[in-house]
């Protein structure tokens, strides 16, 4: 596989997800609820993103129309209309402006359908093209499809607005993005040289090693078998995240610009092994996460299936699965286009043996 860093595409996806920074405090409390992670994130980073959220506050009403849950406007649009291959932000936005009602509606319905049917990780979005056709001209079927979505009533109402007026809503969203471009550019300008430099570094490192450097670079969170393509994006919006996106027309790995520093701090911590072990047992001490692991052991293969069994939302299960991967209790594996979670018995056995050693007196340390 050839790995390639895409600078323009990195900027485009950061721009269209930029409004999500408005909810930074909410996202931080949800994603970083374990003190283990907070120990390695600089206070300056929290202050920076909280300042961004403050700058976006005047646009809150408009942002909330288009950014919510897991199906925000960018997610719905990029399902079929990739931002890859454009030479500027303006050229991509102009492409979106040129799309017809039917083209936009098909993209929205494709994303909804994929989310409901657990086919969201299909490598080629065209695979569900025919399936969505039967919903295109039938409003009742669209409503039935929407009702199956794992979202609250307010979010469903917002999504229904997109389905009723795809062209109008898309143009209004583009207008919002264009209004935010000066603010975004002010922030991006400060990060651009670092983004370009780091993107070229990741590209070279992966190509020189034929992808074998990936586990070392990500503290064993990723390996090359998990990647659907060699497309690399670098993000300052999700600066501490590693995101494998296989649901869009063009799949990619989106790499947060601060991930390397974050993982290096963790790896160099003197008590890292003990903190890893404590984190593992904290996850096992959470009843829902324990039940999630049990269900995976019993053969459950999807977040939807687990959510139904435990009577919680699919988003809640996805959140728990991400934490279990981060703590290395679960391993993400890929078989062709299908992703699955496997229990990491090696780390369980190692943690158990280390715990017994810790609690046994007169052990040679």
UniProtKB/TrEMBL annotation:
SMART domains: HTH_ARSR. PROSITE patterns: HTH_ARSR_2. It comes from the Bacteria. CDD domains: HTH_ARSR. The keyword Isomerase does not apply. InterPro entries: ArsR-like_HTH, HTH_ArsR_DNA-bd_dom, Metal_resp_trans_reg, WH-like_DNA-bd_sf, WH_DNA-bd_sf. Keywords: DNA-binding, Transcription, Transcription regulation. One of its GO terms (molecular function) is DNA binding. Residues 269-363 form the HTH arsR-type domain. Gene3D superfamilies: Winged helix-like DNA-binding domain superfamily/Winged helix DNA-binding domain. Pfam families: HTH_20 (PF12840). This is Regulatory protein, arsR family. It comes from Acetoanaerobium noterae.
């Amino acid at each position: 596989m050839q790995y390639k860093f895409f600078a323009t595409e990195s900027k485009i996806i950061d721009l269209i997800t930029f409004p999500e920074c408005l909810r930074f405090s909410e996202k931080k409390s949800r994603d970083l609820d374990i003190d283990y992670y907070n120990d390695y994130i600089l206070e300056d980073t929290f202050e920076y993103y909280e300042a961004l959220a403050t700058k976006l506050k005047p646009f809150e009403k408009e942002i909330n129309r288009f950014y919510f849950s897991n199906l925000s406007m960018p997610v719905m649009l990029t399902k079929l209309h990739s931002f890859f291959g454009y030479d500027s932000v303006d050229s991509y936005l102009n492409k979106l402006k040129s799309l017809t009602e039917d083209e936009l509606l098909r993209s929205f319905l494709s994303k909804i359908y994929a989310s409901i049917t657990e086919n969201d990780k299909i490598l080629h979005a065209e695979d569900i093209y025919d399936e969505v056709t039967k919903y295109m001209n039938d409003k009742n079927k669209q409503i039935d499809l929407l009702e199956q979505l794992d979202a609250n009533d307010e979010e469903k109402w917002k999504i229904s607005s997109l389905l009723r007026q795809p062209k109008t809503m898309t143009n209004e969203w583009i207008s919002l993005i264009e209004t935010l471009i000066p603010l975004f550019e002010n922030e991006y300008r400060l990060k651009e040289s670092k983004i370009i430099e780091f993107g070229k570094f990741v590209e070279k490192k992966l190509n020189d090693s034929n992808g074998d450097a990936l586990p070392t670079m990500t503290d064993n969170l990723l390996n090359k078998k998990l990647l659907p393509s060699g497309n690399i994006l670098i993000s300052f919006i999700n600066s501490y995240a590693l995101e494998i996106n296989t649901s869009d027309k063009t799949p990619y790995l989106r790499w947060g610009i601060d991930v390397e520093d974050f993982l290096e701090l963790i790896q160099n911590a003197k008590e890292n092994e003990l903190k890893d072990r404590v984190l593992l047992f904290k996850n096992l001490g959470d009843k829902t996460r324990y039940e999630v692991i049990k269900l995976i052991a019993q053969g459950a293969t999807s977040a939807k299936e687990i959510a139904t069994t435990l009577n919680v939302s699919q988003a809640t299960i996805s959140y728990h699965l991400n934490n279990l991967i981060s703590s290395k209790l679960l391993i993400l594996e890929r078989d062709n286009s299908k992703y699955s979670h496997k229990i990491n018995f090696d780390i369980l056995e190692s943690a158990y043996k280390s715990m017994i050693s810790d609690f046994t007196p007169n052990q040679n340390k």
